[in-house]
Specification:
It is a single chain. The radius of gyration is 25 Å and the shape is elongated. The protein is built from five helices and no strands. Helix 1 runs antiparallel to helix 2 and helix 2 runs antiparallel to helix 5. The N and C termini lie far apart (81 Å). The protein has one domain. It is an all-alpha fold and 174 residues long.
Amino acid sequence: MTAEPAGVPTEAASLEAAVRLLTDARSEIARADSKAAVLAGALGVTVGVLSGFLSARRWRPWDLSGFSSVLWWAGACCVALALLSLLMAILPRYRPSSWAPGQPLTYFADTRRASSQGLLAQALADTARSPADALLVSLAETSRIVADKHRWIRIGLAAFFLSTVFFPVAGLLG
């Protein structure tokens, strides 16, 4: 048995790191979903309060001057974009399963596909034989999902921020 050179990780250490990163990525997906849900709720409350306030005063956006009207409708578009973006962050986004016999299972759609083909036991055995392959595919896919969710949250926050600038300026300029 030859000793591993210093600083070169063993396969077990690499698997352990992949499992840790996969766990972290899954936790980050849950946190991103929670952030987006809270922000979407806050956006809904803000729009509701603003609508109620303006309705009580019998205010209408078409009473604004030309430039103010443009700012108002830009703000409305930003609110719509913010809501859409936050909902896109919450939306589950798994790729279609490309699992084929002989490949390891990497997530639930692969398991469903193997089961529907009557090959679940064999697929589980294949996965047990090559756990690193399954982990690497899962880690890459989960990391992609995290990046997508964070991108949508950033877009939603930027759009919401712009609306908080456009609406008051439109109201002040009248």
